[in-house]
Amino acid sequence: MAQFPYTFGIEEEYFLSHPNGQLVTRFPEGLLAVAKARLGEAVTLELLQSQIEIASPIFHGVDEALASMRNFRTSLADVVGDLGFRLIAASTHPLGAWHGQVVTDNPRYDQMMSDFRIIGERNLVCGMHVHVAIPPHVDRVALMNRAMHWLPVFLALSASSPFWNRRVTGLMSYRQAVYDEWPRSGLPDFFDDEPDYQSFVSVLQRTGAIKDASYLWWAIRPSLWFPTLELRIADVCTRFEDGVTLAALFRCLIATLVARPDIGKQRSTHTRRLIDENRWRAKRDGTAASFIDEALDAVVPLREVIGTMRELVADEGHRLGCTPALEGLARILEEGTSSQMQLRIYNEQRACGLSRARALRRVVEWLAETTRAT
Question: Is residue 358 situated within a structural domain?
Fold first, then answer.
C-alpha cells in the first residue's frame, strides 16, 4: 500500500465561441475529425453542441500532467482557431444564453433530454473531473465518505462561473446552482460501503430511474468504468496550471486518507448538512469563504483550512512528487480564481464606460487568451 502510485486522470469541458465572443450554438462542421486527427480519442463531444471535452490519459506524475494538459489546451485551441472559433475554459460563458442551445445527436443525450426537459436545456455549464486510482481492496465508498469534508475547498479554488445569461450572478460558481436543479446531484449520502452503494443503484435500475451508476451526478463518486474515485465538484479552471494543482491536491488527499484510516471517520447527523452549507459558502464566496468546522464548532477562513489541508497531505505529497504543484494553491489565493479575474475585468470595463455587452466581450477575450496554454 505504501508504494501504490495513485495514478490519476483529468477531464475538462470547454465552450466554443465565435470571434466576436458570442457562444457557438451548432458544433462546427469538421471540427471533431480534425481534433481527433491531432489529439486522438482524448477529444469527445458533450451534451450541448457549444461544448467539447478533453479526457486525459492516465498520469503517473504531476510533470506529465502539466505537459499533457498544456499540449491539449494549445493544440485544441489551435484546431478551433484554424476553423475561425475560440476555445473557452470557464464553467459558464459570460455571453452565453441557454435559450436556443442545440443538443448533440447521441442516444444517451436524447434520453437525458426526454427525462429532464428544461433542466437539460439549461445545462449550459462546463466542469473539471479528476479520477484517482484506488488500491485494490480499499472500499471506495468508505473512502468517499471520509473525503467529503474537503469537497468545498475544491469548489472555492476552482470557481470560474460568475456570469449567467449575460448577467452578474453574485455567485462565484453559478455552475453549482445549475447542477442543483438536477436529480442525483450535489453531495452523496453517507453509504455504508460499496455493496450498500450498489444496492441503492440497483433499486434505481430496477425501477427504471437510471440505466447505470453513471447517471449519479454527485460531487464525488466511485467511477463505474474505472477503479477510481472521481472528483466532480470543481469548475473548470481557466489556467490549466490551476487545474493540475487541484488534481494533485485531490490525489494527495486520497493517498493520505488511505495511509491514515483514522482520519475523517467521525461524523454526526449534522455532518452532511454542514458540508453542504460549506459548499454553499464556496459557491457564493469562492476563496473569500469561511467554512463551518464541526469539530471546532467554529467558522474558519479558507486560507486556514487550506493550511491545515497542506499539513495533512504533506507526507504523501512529498512521496508522490506533488509538493511543487501544491505551491500553486498559494498562487490561486494570491492572484485569485478565474471568477475573481473575470469580475475584475468586467467591473473595470464598466467603470470605463463600456456597456454591459462590451464589458462581457472583454471578459471572453481574456478567457480565450488565458485558456490557450502558453
Answer: yes
- From the number of C-beta atoms within 10 Å of its C-beta (0-12, 13-18, 19+), residue 121 rates as middle
CA distance 49 to 150: 33
Helix orientation angle between 240-259 and 302-319, rounded to the nearest 10 degrees: 70
Please name the residue that has the C-alpha cell 483550512: 305
Rg (CA), the chain: 20
**CATH number, domain at 248?**
3.30.590.20
Nearest to 240 by CA among 365, 359, 62, 48: 62
Domain that holds residue 171: 8-371
**Residue 54: helix, strand or coil by DSSP?**
strand
> What is the rounded CA–CA span in Å between residue 253 and residue 147?
8
Number of domains in the chain: 1
Q: What is the pLDDT of residues 190-238, one digit of tens each?
A: 999 999 999 999 999 999 999 999 999 999 999 999 999 999 999 999 9
Q: Looking at the domain assignment, is residue 1 inside a domain?
A: no
CB atoms inside a 10 Å sphere around CB 184: 14
Residue 200 counted as domain residue: yes
Region 294-310 average pLDDT: 96
Residues 229/140, Cβ–Cβ less than 8 Å = yes
Single-letter residue type at 105: D
Q: What gap in Å lies between CA 130 and CA 279, rounded to an integer?
A: 18
What's the N-to-C CA distance of the chain in angstroms?
Answer: 38
* DSSP characters over 258-294: HH-TTTT----TTHHHHHHHHHHHHHHHGGG-EEEET
Consecutive H or E run containing 80: helix 62-82
Kindly write down the DSSP assignment for every residue of 182-203, as one continuous string. Answer: STTEESPP--SSHHHHHHHHHH
Q: What is the pLDDT of residues 113-132, one digit of tens each?
A: 888 888 888 889 999 999 99
Whether 144 is in a domain gets the answer yes
